[in-house]
Amino acid sequence: MFGSLTPLRHFAWTVVKRLIRQKFPTVERISTAELASWLASDLPPPLLIDARQAEEYAVSHLPGAHHWPTLAAVQQAAVSADAAIVVYCSVGYRSARLAQQLQAAGYTHVMNLEGSIFEWHNQGQPLVVDGKPTQAVHPYNRTWGLLLASPE
Question: Is the full-model pTM beyond 0.85?
Answer without folding.
Answer: yes
